[in-house]
Design a protein that fits this description.
Strand content: under 5%
Number of strands: 0
Mean pLDDT: 85
Number of helices: 3
Oligomer: single chain
Helix content: over 70%
Structural class: mainly alpha
Low-confidence stretches: none
Largest sheet: none
Shape: flat
Length: about 100
Amino acid sequence: MDNNGLSFFAILFLAFLALSAALIVWMFISLMRLGDERRQLIVGKACTFSFMGMAGYLLLRTLVFLLGEGRELLHPLITLMVAAYLFAGSLAWYRHKLGG
């Protein structure tokens, strides 16, 4: 593998990290921003879906830990990134569905 292939994957990884950081910041800003009842309903539904998704993710990780060798740890950055992607996806879905 030459240097160009490695640099492409490094740039792709850095772009993924930048997108994840932007989504994490956007998630916290969206949660703190006030709005009318419709916006509160949309954010509330997105939070509920994200919470259910995170509970499922943590349950899955616990089962992998218990059924595996027991050495696999839960990385907090990956957990936060999963929460941000779940929240962004569910917020976009409910904004489209409920018109926000």
